[in-house]
Amino acid sequence: MDYYRQTQLKDYNSLKTEAQAKIFCKPTTIEELRKCLSDYPDEKKLIIGGGCNLFFTKDFDGLVIYPHIKGLREISDDDDEDDDVFLEVNASENWDELVAYCVERGFVGLENLSLIPGTVGAAPIQNIGAYGAEVKDVIREVVAIDMETGKIVSFSNAECEFGYRDSIFKRTNKYLIVSVVIHLKRSFVYTPKYADLNKELEEIEEPTVEDVRNAVIRVRQRKLPDERVLPNAGSFFKNPYITKESADKILVEYPTLPVFPYKDGLVKTSAAFLIDKVGYKGKRIGDVGTYPNQPLIIVNYGTTDGNDIVRFMKEVQGAVNDKFGIELEPEVRIY
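RE: above sequence
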């Protein structure tokens, strides 16, 4: 395995911002992964998968690891029911290719997460979710390398400490995910969860798992830009949790505000709705703007400087906070 110095990272983040990595490597085996960790124990480390949820504002003064470890196998044990399917998937596999693989075989559980860009290893870090589903719903186990000790460690679903777009892996930045074990089913009955998806399927009496995947793809393609054509990192902000009292005040002026019950007196609302109502849907400043069909997505029209994106982000955050008293939190990682 070779190490590269001062490597350009523009092609390794979907917002296409420029930055140099002090050291860069592409391990292709677990042994090489552990070697690069032991070769540079004192360097700051960044693991990049598909690069679809991060961008750079400056050079990275440390080791960037870009693993290329693929593989997928079906596993089983004596306690499995006939309806159960367990797959162990290596971290560098493409996420949507995995979803397609499962749907083609009638394996149920990932279809609502179709067309999300990135790799399998990134999915539990962010606890990716869409259309009423989250990846935590199907994860049985995550296998990782402790970057401090080099040891292989295994996390049960509960030990992953999943939250909304959150996990122990995101919070600690201590673990390099090697593989994910997912628990799927063979039987399927469509359960209405999400309005846009329900509408897309309303003319199909009994949707199949393939129908759901195709519907999700159609909805996403209408709403969301292809990062290969218009650089973006997907949903830029998290949907905020606010008090019911705050929601009630906003509902007086905006009765169509989406409100979803949560817990402890909190409700979840739509960041896209708030951004729209402060006039930032489709707004562009220089080479950065929000996507006209979905204001939750910040798109790059041509800048290579991540600081331009940060400035635009702060302007959106300020407008929402001034109007609604709500602080939007980035979902995207900024380096």
